[in-house]
Amino acid sequence: MSTRSFVGVMSDAGILGAYVHGDGHPSWVGTQVQKILKRDGFEKFGQTILEGCEGGGFSWLDADTNANQEGRRCKIIGGYGGAYTDDYGCEPMTLRGALSRESGQEYAYVARPDGLIDIYEIGYGVRDHLKWTVGLDEELSNVPPAGAVVVKA
User: Fold this and answer.
1) What is the pLDDT of residues 113-150, one digit of tens each?
2) Cβ within 8 Å of residue 27, ≥6 positions away
3) Residue 49 half-sphere exposure toward CB, CA atoms < 13 A
4) Contact at 8 Å (CB) between 83 and 55?
5) Angle subtended at Cα 102 by Cα 113 and Cα 16, rounded to the nearest 5 degrees
6) Among 57, 68, 128, 134, which is disulfide-ready with 18 (CB 3.0 to 4.6 Å)?
């Protein structure tokens, strides 16, 4: 069973992003978001993540994916991962949708224009979630830090 997540960006239209199916823990997807943001910057990261929404989101996110890898049901986006091709015409998800009780995602990562990332541990079936903010060079753990705050969905 995969740990599902939401990866998104702050935009003029709100917080928009994509579903990511595989290994959504901070120690993997959070680290990949950090690596990609450091390499590509906020604008390109946001544009590429939102383009990945067209087919239903990403099967996996990996900063080291190269364009020559093969993917089942996916188009490979070099330096990002495998974007689904099953459901063309999908719209980006919202953070509010990811935090809903029915979404099934366990974590959300929101890239901010100031170079920080907001991480949410989504409480499945409850209305309270934990949120903390990290920089691009911080080591990530799957355990929320002591300073994490409770936010309501």
Assistant:
1) 999 999 999 876 667 889 999 999 999 998 889 889 98
2) 140, 141, 142
3) 34
4) yes
5) 20
6) 57
